[in-house]
Design a protein that fits this description.
There is one protein chain. The chain is mostly beta strands. It is 5% helix and 47% strand. The protein has a four-stranded antiparallel beta sheet, with no helix packed on it. The radius of gyration is 22 Å and the shape is globular. 45% of the residues are buried.
Length: 422
């Protein structure tokens, strides 16, 4: 006869897997249009683009500070077709979109340093509307890239100046950054064969390498770069008889594997958005309402959740992953502990974080390097020379409480660390 304590233990063991497994939770939002772009910078604070209910051709910009339960409308620079959004933190963000300037359709880039309350036009000096799409991604408040048409524009000063890089016949569709040195963007070749590829950089954008996939319907509509050298690129076919594919690189884009997830085919799924938490754990949502998950770098997938609405965007903030879609639908998942990506570069260790007045910095280099202290708006407040090993750095009195950045430069490395001053 089993004793009562043993019965209780067995019951607990049977119950644990179901109570500890994270579940997607629906969020009752106060918005009713489709989430076009979604960008959470923490568990609670996020930004989104939605169709303007007053116009079919323009969008509205909304923000939340309670995990998506309530959203408030924030004024945009002007009415237009906004296509891409990237917030580095709660204050610093960029938008790209196009609007008609008289008889000319132009694509512009706008910058905010106060969470969208004010916007500044920091566009390159161009008149290029692309092919109906544009995309931008930033490594930090100052350094980022803007893709429109067959050109890439790069800035290291928050949009004050831009360098132009031609993509040849390719047009950029999506982009992701990893750490401070690696980035990748997916392309379409501009033809009705819809072939594409991926541009990658391992030196902060100084040089780019292109991988041409050549397959019909291989244009890359989504890309994820979760950690050092791990890239995932989604090719979502426009042809109903060609299944979606996942391209995977585990060496920074030097070589690629082609994966054909069978469950996507069996489910008649149309993948829309993709987010990999690290090199193994990833999620994909679909127009049919699926949310698929992989824990082995995309080799196998399973259905994690099925929603009633079409799902179109994924965004991670803090320890949460969000999936948004039609009719203001929003779902939240607590990510597993320990799923954070591995550090990309071990050049600098800064502690404590949060910090009050003095931060300890340890470098792994054999020679001195420079570190800049930037406020939340990206303004450089102090430049200090760091010696090999451990250093003590007093924060400038002009640095207010809140988010700030340590930017390391030297020894062929450029990396940025987000810090908080109490």
């Amino acid at each position: 006869m089993t004793s009562t304590p043993l019965k209780n233990l067995l019951a607990l063991l049977c119950f644990l897997p179901f109570t500890l497994a994270a579940q997607w939770q629906p969020i009752n939002t106060n918005v009713y249009q489709e989430f076009l772009e979604l960008d959470f910078v923490s568990d609670l604070q996020g930004f989104a683009l939605m169709p303007d209910p007053q116009s079919l051709s323009t969008q509205r910009f909304i923000a939340t500070t309670d995990g998506g339960q309530t959203w408030t409308t924030v004024a945009l620079p002007h009415a237009g077709d906004y296509q891409s959004m990237d917030f580095v933190d709660a204050l610093n963000g960029y938008l790209s979109g196009r609007y008609s300037n008289g008889s000319v359709l132009e694509c512009h880039v706008y910058k905010t340093t106060n969470g969208g309350q004010n916007w500044t036009d920091v566009s390159p000096n161009i008149q290029d509307a692309g092919y109906g799409n544009s995309v931008l991604r930033f490594w930090n408040p100052l350094k980022g890239n803007f893709l429109v048409g067959s050109n890439q524009y790069a800035t290291t000063d928050g949009g004050a100046t831009w360098d132009t890089i031609s993509l040849g016949m390719e047009s950029g569709l999506c982009m992701a950054t990893s750490g401070s040195q690696q980035a990748a963007f997916g392309t379409w070749d501009g033809t009705f064969a819809y072939t594409g590829g991926v541009f990658t950089t391992n030196d902060g954008g100084a040089t780019w390498n292109f991988s041409d996939f050549t397959d019909w319907n291989s244009q890359i509509t989504q890309i994820s770069y979760p950690e050092f050298n791990h890239i995932f690129a989604l090719a979502n076919s426009y042809a109903p008889f060609i299944a979606p594919r996942l391209y995977r690189s585990q060496d920074g884009g030097a070589s690629w594997d082609t994966l054909h997830p069978q469950i996507w085919v069996d489910s008649n799924a149309t993948p829309q958005s993709m987010h990999f938490v690290n090199g193994a754990l990833g999620y994909v949502n679909t127009l049919e309402g699926h949310i698929f998950v992989t824990s082995d770098s995309g080799n196998t997938w399973q259905l994690d959740y099925l929603t009633a609405e079409a799902q179109t965007v994924l965004s991670a903030g803090g320890s949460s992953l969000y999936s948004g879609g039609d009719l203001g639908s929003l779902y939240q998942l607590d990510l597993p502990l320990g799923s954070e990506p591995k550090p990309t570069f071990p050049g600098l260790l800064a502690f404590p974080n949060p910090v009050t007045d003095r931060v300890g910095i340890t470098t792994t280099f054999s020679e001195s390097v420079h570190v800049q202290i930037l406020n939340a708006q990206g303004k450089i407040l102090q430049i200090t020379n760091l010696q090999p090993g451990h250093n003590q750095l007093d924060l400038p009195a002009s640095l207010p409480s809140g988010v700030f950045f340590l930017h390391l430069h030297g020894q062929g490395i450029s990396e940025t660390h987000k810090m908080i001053r109490l």
